[in-house]
Amino acid sequence: MVIETLHLSKRYGNVQALTDLNLSIEAGKVFGFIGPNGAGKSTTMLILSTLLEQTEGDAFVCGYNVRKNPEAVRQSLGYMPDFFGVYDNLTAVEYLEFYAGAFKIPARKRSSLVADLLELVNLSHKADAYVDSLSRGMQQRLGLARCLVHDPSALILDEPASGLDPRARIELREIIKQLRGMGKTILISSHILPELAELCDEIGVIERGRLIACGSVHEVSKDRGRTLMELKTLGHEEEAAHLLNQSGRVFQLEEYVDGFQIRFEGNEQQKAELLQQLIAAGIPVVFFGDAKENLEDMFLAITEGVSG
Ligand SMILES: Nc1ncnc2c1ncn2[C@@H]1O[C@H](COP(=O)(O)OP(=O)(O)OP(=O)(O)O)[C@@H](O)[C@H]1O
């Protein structure tokens, strides 16, 4: 395992921020850490990055214990916090050179390393621009380049897409895919990011400091036995909605212009039965099938009732 936590707990005074958290992320995997504000994502990431001490349990990066061997952890890990500091009077190049220096990269290697990193994050054209003048999306990409200066095997990215517009999110996602292609092991957090579904090999859902679901996107949704489905009909929406609501297997019915999205609890046989009922009731069904699962929907379904 490249990233691992064992019975990790953290208390801030009276606040129990993390409780018995067990995470394990294999080499080369991208793990999405999903949870609402205050769930404990940043706390976990800070502990793994050696910037915060846990109350109980252990955490490891590349086999190094964060408490016993913090130097080795920092050499193996790139950590991107959820906010970008203010850097007056530093250009993108100077900024990366500063961090390369901090990681003791020999001076003669720094300029080619910095040029390569800027290229990787599509910022070569902004090499001499002041960091404070860059857009948020560009600053996030520069932040990503910064955590790569020492070529770490593991990356921890705390909500890298927050505050970005859709285009900037896509750009960031493409870079993260490239990093995955380079064999990096990545822990990435989000509170609402459907885009993570495509990016992540596995996800963990955290709520109030506890991991409440973990596995592949598919497994996590299957575990709950609830599938996101779509139904399209030619008119007859009211009857269809009534029948779905009466079936006892449909949760979170949402009506769109030309159909419904539902969360269905049951197996394939039960899906077929529901379709038969719709047709027997004379409802002209145009489409009835699984919707492309996205993390936002799954998150709502999984956390339903947990926080009460
Ligand atoms: N320094 C601190 N002192 C006291 N309580 C804290 C501190 N940092 C975090 N907390 C509390 O610990 C809990 C977990 O916070 P954490 O920042 O880890 O959550 P998060 O999942 O990263 O949330 P967000 O999505 O808002 O970043 C919250 O209840 C938070 O209020």
Automatic annotation (TrEMBL):
Going by the UniProt record, its keywords in alphabetical order are: ATP-binding, Nucleotide-binding, Transport
In this chain the ABC transporter domain maps to 3-233
Domain of life per record: Bacteria
- InterPro entries (alphabetical): AAA+_ATPase, ABC_transporter-like_ATP-bd, DrrA1/2-like_C, P-loop_NTPase
Q: Does the keyword Mitochondrion apply?
A: no
Quote the CDD domains the UniProt record gives.
ABC_DR_subfamily_A (cd03230)
GO MF annotations in UniProt: ATP binding
Family to which this protein belongs? Belongs to the ABC transporter superfamily.
Put simply, this protein is called ABC transporter ATP-binding protein
Taxonomy-wise, where does this protein's organism fall, top ranks first?
Answer: Bacteria, Bacillati, Bacillota, Bacilli, Bacillales
